[in-house]
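Hi W.,

Here's what went into the run:
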Amino acid sequence: MTTVLETNSLGKRYRRRWALRDCTLAIPEGTVVGLVGPNGAGKSTLLHLAVGLLQPTSGTIDVLGGHPADGTAQLGRVGFVAQDTPTYAGLTVAKHLRMGAWLNPAWDEQLAENRIQRLGLDPRQRAGSLSGGQRAQLALTVAIAKRPELLLLDEPVASLDPLARREFLQDLMEIVAEHGVTVVLSSHLVADLERVCDYLVVLAASRVQLAGEVTALLASHHRLSGPRRDTSTLPGNQEVIEESHTDKQSTLLVRTDDPILDPTWIVKPVTLDDLVIAYMSQARDVGPSRPRALEVLQ
Amino acid sequence: MIRFALLQSRIQTVVGIAGLAIVAVVAAITGPHLVHLFDTNVAPCSQRGNCSGATAGFVANDHLLQGGLNSIVLLVPALIGIFWGAPLVARELETGTFRLVWTQSVTRNRWLAVKLGVVGLMSMAVAGLFSLMATWWSSPFDRANMNRFSNALFGERGLTPIGYAGLAFALGVTAGVVIRRSLPAMATTLVAFIAARLAVAFWIRPHLIAPKIQDFALSLATTGYGSSNAGPASLVPNPQSFPNAWVYSTQIVNKVGSALTPHFVAEACPRLAAIAGGPGPGSGSASGSRSAVLGPAPAGVQSAVGDCIAKVGATFHEVVAYQPASRYWAFQWYEMAVCLGAAVILAGISVWWLRRRIS
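Here's what came out:
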């Protein structure tokens, strides 16, 4: 499988605070990647590093086989929509498309105009007077019409209402289907991404907590409940991610690639939401000092 | 990228053109009349010799417009620095649009280089045109006043405003890149630009070219007797009259360059000291520092001063350090070059800063 984004112990420090540490990731081509984590987990930092807005403090990052923002060609291959979808408030929708055409050699005029028309945006309207959803659509249009191979979206739906959120993501899926572009989109809510992503990266406390294909992640994690039991008595191939105990009962979230054979357990599948929450709270409890090896599955 | 830079600076373009148009109209309406007044009042009198009356009358014309136009040329570079330079990058950083534009297929260096080039050239062109109009409109006054080197005018005529506009713009951009906020960057630009202008006028300009040194023998016409600041009386040089020149200093010195002392005068001219010793008529004890001009004095004092000048003049002479009027354009070019050189250095700093520090 070809990787489009590969990082190796990537780190970024602002003065004394690490925004991202020891990030080792390989994102396969043709996937829709959900980058999930609480606010301040380093999601934006990772995306900014990938698009060359930031330079790493340590480690390496390789995007589509090149260095981020290393020249016109590399910039043209990566589309980016920043958080809060910045646009020039004083410029009209049409002028934003002009900008895209002037600044990108591979600009697809037809694609851009069709999208604007289909979305019902008035080309003469200033971006400053657009609604949040419309602005996000405009920013996405500019990012997609440059015909990138990799599209990075930083919290694209955070400021949208539920309906606009749904429309935006649906639209995004159509783009993916049509152009075969690899997409990474970040959110602090997994619910936003559940329906669209097939690869998941959980970032928390400046580190990668979990990364892998969604189906594989769901298959390898189980919710176990049964009589109260000390977790140290579990088989070695079962790693406890989350545990809660009452006087009589234990509920665990375990990861294992092997079947669970112990008949005392009631085994239930986990939801993506459970998984993300479990890993995020684990990161919070353990704190940022403990590095986790994260070869979940290959 | 050039087209996008032009699109982004469309408001500046409109404001610049509107300002230029207004000044052009006012200058075109009032200018020809001033030329006519100069030709009929000031020009003929110079053949007769004494022009002071006609000149004084002429330069009082359009006083408000003269001041207004000079102020415009003085202010335009500062306004360019504040309103065009400082927000150029700071606004993009403030509103987050740098994340949009730096992720198009244009490198950060090229983006800044083009913006600096387009808006910088526009700044210099606007300031240059304002200066051109001011220089043309004021030329009758400047010819009558003969003070082209004065601090009040040198930076408001000819080429220097172009240099100042470039410098102010670069100062603004650099402040914006470093501070990353429009408003503080604008304030910083204003302060830095005022400091830069003062530094150029008082520290740099006098040293651009070594002054010309010229010696004159002492004579009654050029030398007076008096004291400065209530000190002991001595022979004092009258300012030499060099039209449009910039006189640095006028001194009475001997062959080895030592200045004339009151003590030497008192010993060499005992008769003069006796006559004018007390605070009486003819002592010419002017209170100003240099304007100790020998006023209408009794004949006895006149001849005593004459004798004294002859005696002192045997070993002392008057030496004047000055920039002749012919060097005016050399100074204009040098000052513009110094400012634009500083602007280029500042532009380099902003490019470096944007690349290294904002990442």
